[in-house]
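re: that complex we talked abt at group meeting.

here r the seqs, copy pasted straight from the sheet so there may be weird spacing, ignore it
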Amino acid sequence: MSWRAKLRRDWPLIVLTAPAILLLLVFHYIPLLGNVIAFQDYSPFVGIADSPFVGLDNFQRLFGDPTFWHVVLNTLQITSFQLVFYFPVPIGLALLLNSLMGERLKTFVQSVVYLPHFFSWVLVIALFGQMLGGAGLLAQVLREHGLATFDVMTNPRTFLLLVTSQAVWKDAGWGTIIFLAALSTVDANLYEAAAVDGASRWRMLWHVTLAALRPVIVLLLILRLGDALTVGFEQYLLQHDAVGASTAEVVDTYVYYTGIVRGGWSYAAAAGLFKGLVGLTLILVANKVAHVFGQDGVYRRA
Amino acid sequence: MRPIWMEEPTPPEKVLKAGAIVLVLLAVLFPLYVVVLTSISTQASVAEAGGLVIVPHGITFGAYTDLFSGGVVTRSVIVSTGITLVGTVLSVAVTVMAAYGLSRPNSFGHRPLLFIILLTFLFGPGIIPTYLLVQSLGLIDNFASLILPGAVAAFNVVVVRSFFMNSIPQDLIDSARLDGASEFRILREIVLPLSKAVTAVIALFYGVGYWNAFFNALLYLNDNGKWPLQLVLRAYVLQGQPIPGVNSVQQAAANSLTGAAPTLAIKMAVITLAVIPVLIVYPFVQRHFTKGVIIGAVKG
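got the structure back, here u go
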């Protein structure tokens, strides 16, 4: 079929797609081009068109700025901590849910653990504060029994633990959904065959169940690595003042404070662009590594 | 049922498992229970408990009548509800149309168009340029700034598209086309009635996103008269600011005692207001998660 005939046949489909494309062009691709201010000395009074270009000056300043590197390290520290203490939680929870025999109980527990995913960060932090904060339920009970109270919401030393527990509470349940999907595709015959061969339940867990989850785990690890400089934004912004900037500052909040709060537009845009480029590189590299190890990764070479 | 070849778990294992399940359920439900209960407790029972209430004593809806007697909280609930309704309708419509438009194999131009959508996954535009764009469009202090920048999520387009391609019988669409039905009519009268589950799920995703939106409002709304509920929640519960416009006996009593901080019951009522819509809508949509809408998409 010639392209003219195709166009004559398919133009209504393009019209249907147009509003979404238009919204993405305006609110995604135009700001993407707006990153040009990272190479300028941008001033809001002059505008993008007339602000002078300064080459890589902003990046030079950025890379020479110890505060920036502190923020990057802080972010990476949170990412690594959560890779160990958050990442396996949904897998374990999915195995627990999958081992429940009663279908109704399983559905009920699932719907309860998915729920916090749909709460806002403001809400989650408010709930944590009410439970564990200085004026919260735990402190209240400790005080009644004449014990010393502590406030995890404002303690910089326990901040890593706090943000990770919040992440677990909010999203670990929802995170099980993809593992449960993978588990539902495991062929029951494999278990039967393993049982006939005399495998214990723990050996089955290792050789059948976890083997089935491996592609999903690899995929999620790649995505997580690509996002190593993203640990969540609102969660840190909201607790920024309570524990102090030196603990709670991550790359995204740094961009927000230096750019929008303090008006260092070009400098902050450079930091944001740097973060985006690092993320892109990481995800491409991680995907390559997955291919080398014979896994599919995020995309396949067609 | 347990297959015959599967070993029965040992008693300690069973206890461990039951304990783990109970712990998980409590971790989610207990905080919600305490917050909701405290929001409907009388000042006396809050005082008696020394803070949050675990065992119900006196029940009153005073905190809610105070909050809804006009003022900041009432207004913010109206704002959040409006944004959520308008935003969700717009997002779902645009997403479903785009997903359908891209769902026909080999249609004209679908590859580049799909590419434009998928590429948004790989590289975000960043906070600063997006802010400057919204500002230059004159959307500061305009409610459109809470809707338009995130109106289309590529993920949702992909989910719906893969549902249309894999779960709608293609013959049905082809024969409608032969009968001369327009694409829009096919979408509305054939495809959508068969896609209620997936539409409900993405409507929940978008709706929750709008209801929970905090950062966009913080960025783009300078006028706190326009604040949605999440910003009010932060100000009064996380930052402990006084609530103007709540003038009741309860609040006045608290004001004279503690300065101007909102009473605990009122704080908890604001938290509850932020949870309730999610709690109401969620059960109706939740069963579709397990019915394979998302799961199918994730696999595909």
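couple things i noticed - The mean pLDDT of chain A is 90. Residues 41-292 of chain A form a domain with the MetI-like fold fold (CATH 1.10.3720.10).
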